[in-house]
Design goal:
This protein is about 40% helix and about 15% strand. By secondary structure, it is of the alpha/beta class. The termini are far apart. About 45% of the residues are buried.
């Protein structure tokens, strides 16, 4: 495997399980020192052991990204430990489903606070370090639900739509500092086998689930991790402000009732 991120420091939120853990592994195996934040100490401890067992230099910090104080402390701890910040992946997210007429605004606000406000807070505190490094890359994890919806997903869809707008706004604001900002929108990603041991289950997928995808299968966390690494690669320095949809083709497939 290449070492294209040798000497770089990466921050990953929601990095203890699922897509976030896959991103930590991908960037770490390619040479980055990885600091990751999560609110689940059990998962965080297991993830740290898993990363270190692969020879990845890693740091786990317990942080609720809805708290600006936690975000600031996370960024500072990473910069103090590793000497700077070069890459940021804002991945932390929660999901809430409720009929809109029954949706409490407290639940709506919590989803927005974690999924959208958290991405802004981490980015805000990382910017001085990215500037000091002479530039860097930020990748925000959005969702195909920013572009299409199932019923009763207003809070999540709104948060991910906000991520897309935040991404292109930051790309313009930070461009003069050679800081690129992009988004990845995952589709159906099966994360069952990437959870902490106490929650890990074999994936329960049917053939029809795979066949919904023109690519022929349901997605895996590694698919998103590779997309994040591509956008972080210095060779992608002409790419900023984009939303890379990684969904096996689901969102471009026309579906008609038989």
């Amino acid at each position: 495997m290449s070492r294209r991120f040798e000497g770089k420091v990466a921050l990953v939120t929601g990095g203890a399980q699922g897509i976030g853990l896959a991103v930590c592994e991908q960037l770490g195996r390619e040479g980055a020192k990885v600091a990751f934040a999560d609110i689940d100490d059990e998962a965080g401890g297991e993830a740290l052991e898993r990363l270190e067992a692969q020879g990845i230099e890693a740091l786990y910090i317990r942080a609720d990204v809805a708290s600006e104080g936690d975000c600031a402390a996370f960024v500072k701890a990473a910069a103090d430990r590793f000497g700077g910040v070069h890459l940021v992946c804002n991945n932390a997210g929660i999901f809430h489903a409720s009929p809109p007429e029954e949706l409490s605004l407290e639940a709506f606000d919590r989803v927005i606070a974690v999924n959208l406000r958290g991405a802004m807070a981490v980015t805000k505190h990382a910017i001085p370090h990215l500037k000091a490094a002479g530039g860097g890359a930020i990748v925000n994890i959005a969702s195909t639900r920013a572009l299409m919806s199932e019923p009763n997903t207003e809070s999540y869809s709104a948060s991910k739509g906000g991520i897309l707008a935040l991404t292109h706004a930051l790309a313009i604001s930070l461009g003069p500092y050679r800081i690129r900002v992009n988004a990845v929108s995952p589709g159906w990603i099966e994360t069952s086998e990437w959870k902490k041991r106490s929650a890990r289950r074999p994936a329960e997928l049917r053939e029809v689930d795979h066949l919904q995808h023109p690519a022929g299968r349901v997605g895996r966390p590694e698919d998103i991790a590779r997309a994040v690494a591509f956008l972080c690669d210095p060779a992608a320095d002409f790419i900023t402000g984009v939303n890379l949809v990684v969904d096996g083709g689901m969102t471009v497939k026309m579906i008609y009732e038989p």
